[in-house]
Design the sequence.
């Protein structure tokens, strides 16, 4: 679902995945939902890149089944090889 938002189009690298916790199994036929929240961003020493920290939660119906925190290095707007899209 996150890929459909195109949030990963300008990604350079996944720097870290921290605190990934599976709380419940996901069963066949379940209705899956997710939330992705940007909780921090900062400049890097490279002028064309920035680092972002995300918290992710996935749900089956109303039950939270996964939580994770990740750091991702991005190309800034206009500096990516994909920026001409």
Sequence:
């Amino acid at each position: 679902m996150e890929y459909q938002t195109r949030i990963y189009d300008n990604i350079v690298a996944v720097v870290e995945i921290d605190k990934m916790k599976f709380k419940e199994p996901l069963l066949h036929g379940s209705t899956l939902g997710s939330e992705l929240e940007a909780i921090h961003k900062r400049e890097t020493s490279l002028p064309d890149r920035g680092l972002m920290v995300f918290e992710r939660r996935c749900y089956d119906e109303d039950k939270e089944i996964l939580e994770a925190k990740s750091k991702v290095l991005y190309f800034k707007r206009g500096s990516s090889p994909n920026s001409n899209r």
In short: The chain has a mean pLDDT of 87. Residues 27 and 60 are 9 Å apart (CA to CA).
